[in-house]
């Protein structure tokens, strides 16, 4: 009880202070640059690209007076992220950006081509792999089996594995046999296939179906959970393919456990007041335990104590708190502070 009383007293004192606006990523970066000082900040600024410099400069020009507590908060957050194993990610785009900082453009293109082919081809096949598998399968049913085999040899293997069974047993066997026997596809044939995909399939698939499915996923994310469960059975029966695709695009409160530990901790630290304990009161034991395990022992005890002493919580308050955490996670993802695992089937942690 003493811990709960202390937390309530602290909360009451904090309520007397003016509520600070949550700072964006560029604003925090601007504060770090100002703390470095003119000389060291200028040297570090030279290593950024033009877009990053523009964002940070704009944020810096609008900061105004930042009190010591806010500066300390930003510095502490930065230090904690590094201390707790701030992850680094190696990727094609990171490698490309690094090379362009010190090599001529033609040399960069040559190196990248050796790694994964021309940039335009890479972008095309990456975008094509994101199209719903039912759309791809229906398209390939109208193509020659050799063309279908050439296309599926270029998409991600998990996409091909989902598409092939949708083509029917006999056609699948034929296409797989051609994929096994396939050698290098002539450049002229591959260029023609890519051009056809861009004009006949990519534009239509991306401009209509994907946009609507994304919109419906956002709607279902915000729909009352009981209402969603009531309509799910009907939608699965009447529009099974489209509904499955929409569900794969949804990101719910339970999906937060698929974030890495540092990302989940970042979300928990950023939500205001009693949002976190209220949200967890309505969560399953598995989800609640996962959240608690991410926290340091002392913070875990304090959060558990607060949940135990808050009394009954209304269902609508729980749903509002969980939605607030999901919305905040999406804000952080938009600022590229964390990465959301949007495809629930492909991003399960094991």
UniProtKB/TrEMBL annotation:
<comment type="similarity">
    <text>Belongs to the FliG family.</text>
</comment>
<keyword id="KW-1003">Cell membrane</keyword>
<keyword id="KW-0283">Flagellar rotation</keyword>
<keyword id="KW-0145">Chemotaxis</keyword>
<keyword id="KW-0282">Flagellum</keyword>
<dbReference type="InterPro" id="IPR011002">
    <property type="entry name" value="FliG_a-hlx"/>
</dbReference>
<comment type="function">
    <text>FliG is one of three proteins (FliG, FliN, FliM) that forms the rotor-mounted switch complex (C ring), located at the base of the basal body. This complex interacts with the CheY and CheZ chemotaxis proteins, in addition to contacting components of the motor that determine the direction of flagellar rotation.</text>
</comment>
<feature type="domain" description="Flagellar motor switch protein FliG middle">
    <location>
        <begin position="134"/>
        <end position="205"/>
    </location>
</feature>
<protein>
    <recommendedName>
        <fullName>Flagellar motor switch protein FliG</fullName>
    </recommendedName>
</protein>
<keyword id="KW-0472">Membrane</keyword>
<dbReference type="InterPro" id="IPR023087">
    <property type="entry name" value="Flg_Motor_Flig_C"/>
</dbReference>
<keyword id="KW-0975">Bacterial flagellum</keyword>
<dbReference type="Pfam" id="PF14842">
    <property type="entry name" value="FliG_N"/>
</dbReference>
<feature type="compositionally biased region" description="Polar residues">
    <location>
        <begin position="1"/>
        <end position="12"/>
    </location>
</feature>
<feature type="region of interest" description="Disordered">
    <location>
        <begin position="1"/>
        <end position="24"/>
    </location>
</feature>
<dbReference type="Pfam" id="PF14841">
    <property type="entry name" value="FliG_M"/>
</dbReference>
<feature type="domain" description="Flagellar motor switch protein FliG C-terminal">
    <location>
        <begin position="235"/>
        <end position="340"/>
    </location>
</feature>
<keyword id="KW-0966">Cell projection</keyword>
<feature type="domain" description="Flagellar motor switch protein FliG N-terminal">
    <location>
        <begin position="23"/>
        <end position="122"/>
    </location>
</feature>
<dbReference type="InterPro" id="IPR000090">
    <property type="entry name" value="Flg_Motor_Flig"/>
</dbReference>
<dbReference type="InterPro" id="IPR028263">
    <property type="entry name" value="FliG_N"/>
</dbReference>
<dbReference type="Pfam" id="PF01706">
    <property type="entry name" value="FliG_C"/>
</dbReference>
<dbReference type="InterPro" id="IPR032779">
    <property type="entry name" value="FliG_M"/>
</dbReference>
<keyword id="KW-0969">Cilium</keyword>
